[in-house]
Amino acid sequence: MEHLDYELPSRPQPRRREALLVGVVGSGNCELLLEAGAPADHCRLRVNTSAHGFAPIWSAVLADFAARSAAGGLTIEINDVGATPAVVSLRLDQAIEAWEESAHG
């Protein structure tokens, strides 16, 4: 298992809520746990992946996500079992949308 940690600049996420789980790791791609807890202007991401040697791809996918999303103030843990970059990107978008739909204020 490889663990990768990132802290990337991102627009602040204005919505607050309890932790949120998106996806199912047993589905063959990935699950994400989102919680408040990073600096307002940064997003913390931790990747736990069974696929070794893909750090440059993870870095590119997550930097793109942080740049185009309001993920500042969030800590996101990704449990991956071989998802493609496109699936990871879609799952991250789905997670932010779910966070914003069910958040307070």
What would your notes on this structure say?
The structure is a single chain. This protein has a 5-stranded mixed sheet with strand order 1-4-5-3-2, covered by helices on one side. It is of the alpha+beta class. Helix 1 (55-68) packs parallel to helix 2. The chain contains 2 helices and 5 strands. The chain has helices at residues 55-68, 85-101, and strands spanning 2-9, 20-23, 30-36, 42-49, 74-80. Strand 4, helix 1 and strand 5 (74-80) form a beta-alpha-beta unit. The mean pLDDT is 92. One of its GO terms (cellular component) is cytoplasm. Its main location: cytoplasm. It comes from Azospira restricta. It is found in: Cytoplasm. This is Malonate decarboxylase acyl carrier protein.
Q: Short summary of the structure?
A:
The protein has 105 residues and is of the alpha+beta class.
Look at the structure and give the mean pLDDT: 92
DSSP strand tally: 5
Low-confidence stretches: none
Strand content: 25-35%
Percent helix range? 25-40%
Major sheet details: 5 strands, mixed
Q: Which of globular, elongated, flat, extended, rod-shaped describes the shape?
A: globular
Give the end-to-end Cα distance, rounded to a whole number of Å.
38 Å
Radius of gyration: 13 Å
Element string (H = helix, E = strand): EEEEHEH
Organism: Azospira restricta
Main location: cytoplasm
Subcellular location: Cytoplasm
Modified residues (O-(phosphoribosyl dephospho-coenzyme A)serine): 27
